[in-house]
Design brief:
The chain is 33% helix and 26% strand. By secondary structure, the chain is α/β, with parallel strands linked by helices. The chain starts with 5 loop residues before the first strand and ends in a 6-residue tail after the last helix. The chain contains 13 helices and 20 strands. It has a domain at 6-188: Carbamate kinase (3-Layer(aba) Sandwich). The structure holds adenosine-5'-diphosphate, aspartic acid (ASP) and magnesium ion (MG). Residues 23-24, 55-56, 61, 87, 149-150, 164-168 line the site of aspartic acid.
């Protein structure tokens, strides 16, 4: 707790400074925005100072992204940001109006007005700093601050956006900047589940999840929180809860330290990502420097390489190498490799975007041997072929054909005893 311990005269509850975040489905229409206003009012009535971060109405960002791409697939990223940041401006203003209508003083804030400063990587900028002065001043006056999520201002003095799902990051960063006692992320599910409840009906809500596990879950595809938001929560020690807008008292999930988790099953959760593509380079020379010759040009082209596997060469002279990257980066990766073909010296290049990555995650893996083996056996029992494998201390990921994703996730969910009874 940061703030002075002041108690509400009626309830005796300690008064705190809190950040609340509402995602796209939570603000999808005017009735939902009115509902969100009542949830904010509840906290104000408890005596708390409240900063609220909002996403664009559901579907709005997709529409704006689509318009930009339709006008020109090769658009300037700065103009992309100008367009796609607009959705959050609308909901921030509307929520401030809805709060005013029920007697709660509120003001909307766009990224540049605070300001929320970001890097100049338009389209996927990183928050570099938030000046808390203005927000704190207004909060101190009893005014709710309604902050437009997903956006900031870059050093080039232009609007920037934080990458899809970025309002989570705005919320945790605002919470850190104003030294909030907690950050509540309200969404369309009542917490973080053992896997995406949309594809596995038997998924269970996790009352608590360790930061490290949440970081892996998010970066391996569980879009309930943007990865960067979890990093900021860890770094600045912001207590984060994930809650349901539609059932706000339903328990939720608390992000916590590993030590606070008593029962450590081998696997805590399963994540999947369809945003994957695979590239294979056939018959590359098996010599020192070859990996640098391949991955250097990819890095220069801004391609994030994920899984890598190199075959053992049969004759000591030539071998094959396979790696994965985001599907959206496939065309760029192929172009970079074709340009670098003379320097690399491969015989053939193939690519496949009909692939997906399925991952098992758990801090309990460290203490339980044979966890990866159980994954491979489960997939083989279902006749699912594993194309690439990668592991770290607390996760195992496999690349499989996309059509088997749901089957794989369900089978693994049962195999690791994560199903609800
Ligand atoms: P918001 O618009 O509120 O930011 P998102 O759609 O970005 O919401 O994230 C919530 C969604 O994340 C859920 O509806 C769910 O389908 C998906 N999801 C994926 N993995 C998980 C998980 N492990 N636990 C909870 N939700 C998950
Ligand atoms: N509206 C943005 C998106 O759809 C940001 C967010 O919702 O978190 O990606
Ligand atoms: Mg989201």
């Amino acid at each position: 707790m940061y703030g002075p311990l002041v108690r509400n005269a009626q309830t005796g509850e300690a008064m705190a400074k809190i950040a609340m975040k509402f995602g796209g489905t939570s603000v999808a229409d005017l009735d939902r925005i009115r509902h969100v206003a009542t949830l904010v009012k509840r906290e104000v009535d408890r005596g708390h100072q409240v900063a609220v971060v909002v996403s664009a109405m559901a579907g709005e960002t997709n529409k704006l992204v689509g318009w930009t791409k339709d006008i020109s697939p090769l658009h300037d990223a700065r103009e992309y940001d100008t367009v796609v940041a607009a959705g959050e401006q609308v909901t921030a203003g509307l929520l401030a109006v809805a709060l005013g209508a029920i007697g709660v003083p509120a003001r909307s804030w766009l990224g540049w007005q605070i300001p929320i400063r970001t890097s100049a990587m338009h389209g996927s900028a990183r928050i570099e700093g938030i000046e808390p002065g203005l927000l704190n001043e207004r909060l101190g006056q009893g005014q709710v601050a309604v902050v437009a999520g997903f956006q900031g201002i870059a050093a080039d003095n232009r609007i920037s956006t934080l990458g899809r799902g970025g309002s989570d990051t705005s919320a945790v960063a605002v919470a850190a900047a104003i030294k909030a006692d907690r950050c509540d992320i309200y969404t369309d599910v009542d917490g973080v589940y053992t896997t995406d409840p949309r594809i596995v009906a038997k998924a269970r809500r996790l009352p608590k999840i360790a930061f490290e596990e949440m970081l892996e879950m998010a970066s391996l595809g569980a879009k309930v929180l943007q990865t960067r938001s979890v990093e900021i929560a860890m770094l600045y020690r912001v207590p984060v809860r994930v809650l349901s807008t539609f059932d706000p008292d339903a328990g939720g999930t608390l992000l916590c330290d590993e030590e606070d988790i008593v029962e450590k099953k081998p696997v805590t959760g399963i994540a999947y990502s369809r945003d994957e593509a695979k590239i294979s380079l056939m018959k590359i020379p098996d010599r020192p420097g070859i990996a640098a010759a391949i991955f250097g040009p990819l890095a220069d082209a801004g391609v994030n390489v994920d899984m890598i596997v190199q075959n053992v060469s049969e004759d000591g002279r030539r071998t094959d190498l396979t790696f994965t990257c985001a599907r959206s980066e496939l065309a760029r990766a192929l172009k970079a490799l074709e340009d670098a073909a003379p320097a690399i010296g491969y015989r053939e290049i193939t690519s496949d975007s009909n692939v997906a990555k399925v991952s098992i995650i758990g801090i309990g893996m460290r203490a339980h041997p044979g966890v990866a083996q159980a994954m491979f056996r489960t997939l083989s029992d279902k006749g699912i072929n594993i194309q690439v494998i990668s592991t770290s201390e607390i996760k195992v990921s496999v690349l499989i054909a996309e059509e088997y994703v749901e089957l794989a996730v369900r089978a693994l969910h049962s195999a690791y005893e994560l199903d609800t009874a």
